[in-house]
Amino acid sequence: MSTITATLGTDRARRLRAALTVLLAAAVAVGAPFYFAPFQVFQLTMVLLYAVALAGLNLLVGFGGQISLGHGAFFAAGAYTAAVMLDQYDTGHLATLPVAAAGCFLLGLGFGVPALRLRGLYLALVTLAFAVFLPPLLKRLEPVTGGSMGLTVDKLQPPAWSGLAEDQWVYLVVLAVTAVALLLARNLLRSRVGRALLAVRDNESAAEVMGVRLSLHKTLAFAWSAMFAGVAGCLYTWVIGFVSPDSFSFVLSITLLAGLVVGGLGSLYGPLLGAAFVMYVPSVSQDVSEAAPGVVFGLLIITVMFVAPTGLAGLPGRVRAAVARRLPRPAAAPDRTPEAASAPDAKPESQSASEPSATDTPADPAVADAEPVGAPPRTEKE
Amino acid sequence: MSEPTTERTEAAEGAEQPDFLKVTDLHAGYGQARVLQGLDFSVARGEVCAILGPNGAGKTTTLRALCGMVRGRGSVTLNGTQLLGRSPEQAARLGVAHVPEGRGTFNDLTVEENLRVGAHLRSRRRAERAAVAADLERIYGYFPKLRQRSRQAAGSLSGGEQQMLAIGRALMLRPSLLLLDEPSLGLAPLVTRELFEIVRAVNEEERTTVVVVEQNAQLALDIAHRAHVLEAGRLALSGPAAQIREDGQVAEVYLGVSVSARKTG
After folding, report:
1. Which of A46, A101, A113, A45 minimizes the C-alpha distance to A74?
2. B104-141 residue pLDDT tens
3. What's the CA gap between A329 and B129, in Å, rounded?
4. Measured between beta carbons, which residues in chain A are less than 8 angstroms from residue B104?
5. What is the pLDDT of residue B251?
6. Which terminus of chain A has fewer Cβ atoms in its 10 Å neighbourhood, N or C?
């Protein structure tokens, strides 16, 4: 009985802490454009829209266990959908979002079919081919896409009532879309479909004998993932107001995948960290070395992968695990003050209050990583 | 709920549907390797059937053919419905739950999520959710250890607990046919015994038909009503479990000595 109340207590505490964190993050996120300079606000906007694309890629790679080197192409498809609609049909910005989303979902569905037959590197190669072949195609379709000159369209403009500057308004709109997209990704993963997806990644044949339709779930993973990339592309057009084939070379696809891995595969907030990496690190490496920014960028990726093989999102868990390993020796306590101070108090308590099972949980960073996904699926949706 | 079964062989003979699972002339294999070469046997509804035999005899292949993981020729009917030629997912829909060799738990999911994947086929409707919740309770009733660890990642469980989880997950399907592939593999004898007792309890309380493949013949024969001994893709021996247990020839089969087929059932 006492164990049940104890778990309930920690559960409530955890939920409260999560709610407070979300509120704080929301306040900071909404307040940011009023504090930073316009260019910095623009950079933050780009981080947010890359986070949408990475969240989509994460569904496929992190949770679906498939590799795509072609998500830059879905991103481009979303961006061009928005640009062409604005340029040729003058539909207004809002209308472009659902069309880009639906269009890329269908495109992803189409690409999900080869994904059924191919896996690993072979799938990566096919998707890379898509990413390589799209820019020349865009150049050829000149009447619609503007060829290699690209298309210049209106950026998103703030309505008069808001009294906001353009960069602030754009940031807030992108923030709203990003929040919805990340929430959708999270709920998708906690639903029946998400569980099936994770099961397929963990053990394909065991999932199948449980009645999970492999083909359906793999194809859907691709479609959802492409949809997120398309939405991000659409936002890109809103923010930049210009698309050209050269903005979406296959390097973009590779950058997205690298960003995701650096941020943390299979983590819910890894995409945000990865997006920040994708946005800021190239310019930082430009500052460090004018001559070879690529070298600096590459070295940084290697460093991150060496220090945090589970990505930046997994770093806190690894640090916690490393601290926990040193805890039994009291001599090691002073060097990490905050955690070391609270943890020795907590440990004997939990040992006396709960079954031994609660304490013999291995302090494995990968398990800690999976935790947000592993929470009870209360939010099950149809 | 559970009728006391004094003699398990009698329970088998009293079963109302002797051909609940009927395997006729089953051939199956992997590519060029033909493993099963004409297998015939039946399992009555509510019966525990053990499939024994040396390594490479085709035990695992038999189970895989039953659940659609391996293609087979011949005929396999469950309650009159043909199972051959169906995908594992379709077989699951028909009530076949397979616990694969080496357990196959989803290690990144929690224990409870693993169990919920077992209910994948039926958790869509709102009314069904209460039933799923009740089934979770039922499984936790059989395996109290799983309840303690319901929020833990399956990958952090011990081997025995993972095997329990795999069986629990299969039971979430509410199967009419439960296929167990080497449940004792890599487990301590004590854990294995506990596991087999639970399988016996499930069989007695829910009348679930069970086909269990085992290397550990003694254990399997303890809970089985009927047993078939495979050798090189063919039935070498079949009969009531008690009879097979006493038959010294089982040992010979395990030693690889050929035994003339003596089909008693």
Report:
1. A101
2. 888 888 898 888 888 888 766 777 888 888 888 988 98
3. 48
4. 203, 205-206
5. 59
6. N
Q: Does B149 touch chain A (CB under 8 A)?
A: yes
* Domain ranges (residues) in chain A: 40-250
The pLDDT of residue B15 is 52
From chain B residues 97-116, the ones with a CB under 8 A of any chain A CB are 97-98, 100, 104-110, 112-114, 116
ipTM for the assembly? 0.79
What does the mean pLDDT of chain A come to?
Answer: 77
Helical pair A315-326 and A337-353, crossing angle rounded to 10 deg: 70
Query: Between chains, do B117 and A374 touch, taking CB under 8 Å as contact?
Result: no
**Could you report the per-residue pLDDT of B165-213, keeping only the tens digit for each?**
999 999 998 899 999 998 888 888 888 888 899 999 989 988 899 999 9
Q: Chain A: which residues have CB within 8 Å of chain B?
A: 192, 195-196, 198-199, 201-203, 205-214, 266, 355, 357, 361-362, 364, 366-367, 370, 373-374, 376-377, 380, 382
**Beta-carbon separation of B109 and A357 below 8 A:** no
CA distance A138 to A146: 8
Q: Does the distance separating the beta carbons of A195 and B113 come in below 8 Å?
A: yes
Q: Other C-beta atoms within 10 Å of A321: how many?
A: 17
Please check whether residue B169 touches A, CB under 8 A.
yes
Q: Does B168 touch chain A (CB under 8 A)?
A: no
> What is the average per-residue pLDDT within A14-35?
83
pLDDT at B144 exceeding the cut of 80: yes
Query: Which residues in chain A are contacts of B152 at CB distance < 8 A?
Result: 357, 361
Mean pLDDT for B4-13 is 47
Burial B192-202 (b: 16+ CB within 10 A, else e): bebbbebbbeb
A92 — alpha (psi -120 to 50), left (phi > 0) or beta? left
Outline where A210-336 has alpha helix (H). Answer: 214-240, 250-263, 270-288, 293-307, 315-326
Interface of B with A in 4-63 (CB under 8 A): none
CB contact under 8 A, B93 and A207: no
Instruction: Give the Å distances, CA to CA, from B34 to B58, B94, B186.
Output: 10, 27, 27
Helices (H), chain A: 2-31, 38-58, 71-84, 93-117, 121-140, 142-145, 166-190, 192-202, 204-209, 214-240, 250-263, 270-288, 293-307, 315-326, 337-353, 356-359, 365-374
